[in-house]
Amino acid sequence: MDGSPVIVGIAGSVRKGSYNAALLRAAIELAPSGARIESVSIRGVPLYDGDVEAERGIPEAVRDLKDKIAQSAGLIIVTPEYNNSIPGVLKNAIDWLSRPTSDIPRVFGGRAVALMGASSGRFGTVMSQAAWLPVLRVLGMRPWWGPRLLVGGANKVFDESGRLVDVRVRTQLREYMAGFVEFAVGKVT
Question: What are the φ/ψ torsions at residue 123 (nearest 5 degrees)?
Fold first, then answer.
């Protein structure tokens, strides 16, 4: 590692063919030269259970994610939209990451955060992104208020291998990543 700040990216779906995982891969590809974006998975995060937390503590997969986020300059949340709101698997991961509550300032407090998402629907993930705002506020995060990235019609902008092929969306994503990286870490060289 070269010591430059890292931005952590979380795709909010664990499905192999997830448009949101594909969007995160494209965001990493289109990030400014010199930016370090690390994709992390929420696949190993169990369902939150207060009894498990009380009896066994924080699961290792959650501790590892917490440490990566706590050491990062920023967080990109790539959110699906289920039933006009936040996807359960991603909200569950964030709920675990906020445990114990005394650790919220270390993991989330003042951390730069960006939201983006892809959906096969016309409006992208506009409702999900809006639903995340109260969660980010209570965690004390510092949202980037640049242009929103709402990828609608995802089945038409990604090819069968998950590569982002739509030129307009690629341009938007490149600009979005440049803006967020500058917000989170400053200019990169």
Answer: -100, 15
What percent of the chain is helix, strand and coil (3-state, nearest 5)?
Answer: 45, 15, 40
Take residue 128 and report the two structure tokens written for it: 């999900």
Alpha helices by DSSP H, the chain: 19-30, 50-56, 60-70, 88-97, 104-107, 126-138, 154-157, 167-185
Q: With contact defined as beta carbons under 8 Å apart, do 136 and 145 qualify?
A: no
Which of helix, strand or coil describes residue 74? Answer: strand
Burial class (CB in 10 A: 0-12, 13-18, 19+), 37: buried
Name the DSSP letter for residue 2: -
Both tokens assigned to 78 = 């790539």
Look-up: residue for tokens 């066994």? 56
What tens digit of pLDDT does each residue of 37-59 get? 999 999 999 999 999 999 999 99
Q: Is 81 exposed, middle or buried (0-12, 13-18, 19+ CB in 10 A)?
A: buried
